[in-house]
């Protein structure tokens, strides 16, 4: 099992703690994505593949809006958590384990809409790996379909290569929760350590480590076009209200 699978398997039961209100976030992000889909001519009749579904943050919200969603991930732990949360939300999704670098190994059908949110693509640590992932994802798109993904603003981060992210402080019923990340850089790659501190009387600390490669927007744009997309458009937080830049690529 590689470090990415271990990271998400371990984090699965606590992933929702990274949000002030995970339940509200699922609905907010579904509204955002629905708007992006509709701007490209798609609505709830278009089946969606969430190829890095995690605990279902986007997939569950979209299913709640009426979309038929197939939710896949490489992490068994996150899939198990997503299934529980889908049941709690009263929605049905098609869950399956899949590596987004090899989607054709799992899926015979192609999708009109594929999403890959929350900085999943930069887990690919080499140019060859990200090229394989993009080729796999675009290859699973129908002609005329769209791919929607979000990544950190690495174009800005690479200017200074900060050693940590600002902390998030969430008030809870019994105290507060503090979450933050440290980043140890080696070239364009970095080791991320996610800390979650629950301070509700007796403090407890959880720690999860992973690796990323800073993916520039120009590089991802070029790979999408090379893989068969005909147009690539970037949308930024000032426009969308989302915390990361979002790319919308059409095949």
Q: What does it look like?
A:
With 251 residues, this protein is of the alpha/beta class. The chain folds into two domains: 3-153 and 215-250, 3-Layer(aba) Sandwich (Rossmann fold); 156-210. Helices cover 32% and strands 29% of the residues. It is built from eight helices and eleven strands. The chain has helices at 3-11, 22-39, 59-64, 76-88, 127-139, 154-160, 217-226, 237-240; strands spanning 48-50, 69-73, 94-97, 111-116, 141-150, 168-171, 176-186, 189-199, 204-213, 231-235, 246-250. A seven-stranded mixed sheet has the order 3-2-1-4-5-11-10, sandwiched between helices. Strands 6-7-8-9 form a four-stranded antiparallel sheet. Helix 5 (127-139) crosses helix 7 (217-226).
Relevant CATH superfamily of the largest domain = Vaccinia Virus protein VP39
Derived from helix and strand composition plus strand pairing, the structural class reads alpha/beta
Low-confidence stretches at least 5 residues in length (pLDDT < 50)? Answer: none
Strand order of the largest sheet: 3-2-1-4-5-11-10
As for the number of domains, it is 2
The ordered H/E elements are HHEHEHEEHEHEEEEHEHE
> Any idea what the CATH architecture of the largest domain is?
3-Layer(aba) Sandwich
Largest sheet: 7 strands, mixed
| Rg calculated over all Cα atoms | 18 Å
Strand content: 25-35%
Q: Under CATH, the topology of the largest domain is which?
A: Rossmann fold
Q: What is the tally of helical segments?
A: 8
> What is the residue-mean pLDDT, rounded to a whole number?
97
Can you give the helix content as a percent range? 25-40%
Mass-distribution shape = globular
CATH C-level name of the largest domain: Alpha Beta
How many strands in all? 11
* End-to-end C-alpha gap: 33 Å
């Amino acid at each position: 099992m590689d470090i990415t699978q271990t990271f998400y398997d371990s984090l699965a039961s606590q992933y929702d703690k990274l949000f002030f209100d995970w339940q509200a976030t699922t609905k907010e992000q579904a509204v955002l994505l629905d708007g992006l889909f509709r701007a490209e001519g798609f609505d709830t009749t278009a089946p969606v593949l969430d190829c890095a579904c995690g605990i279902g943050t986007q997939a569950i919200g979209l299913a709640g809006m009426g979309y038929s969603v197939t939710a896949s991930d490489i992490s068994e732990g996150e899939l198990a958590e997503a299934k529980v949360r889908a049941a709690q939300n009263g929605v049905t999704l098609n869950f399956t384990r899949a590596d987004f670098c090899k989607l054709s190994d799992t899926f015979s059908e192609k999708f009109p809409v594929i999403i890959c949110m929350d900085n999943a693509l930069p887990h690919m640590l080499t140019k060859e790996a990200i090229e394989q992932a993009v080729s796999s994802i675009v290859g699973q798109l129908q002609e005329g379909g769209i791919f929607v993904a979000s990544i950190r603003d690495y174009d800005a981060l690479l200017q200074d290569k900060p050693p940590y992210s600002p902390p998030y402080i969430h008030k809870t019923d019994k105290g507060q929760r503090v979450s933050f990340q440290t980043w140890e850089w080696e070239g364009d790659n970095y080791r991320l350590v996610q800390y979650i501190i629950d301070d509700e009387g007796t403090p407890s600390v959880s720690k999860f480590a992973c690796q990323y490669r800073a993916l520039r927007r120009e590089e991802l744009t070029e790979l999408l076009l090379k893989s068969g997309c005909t147009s690539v458009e970037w949308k930024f937080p000032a426009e969308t209200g989302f915390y990361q830049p979002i790319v919308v690529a059409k095949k």
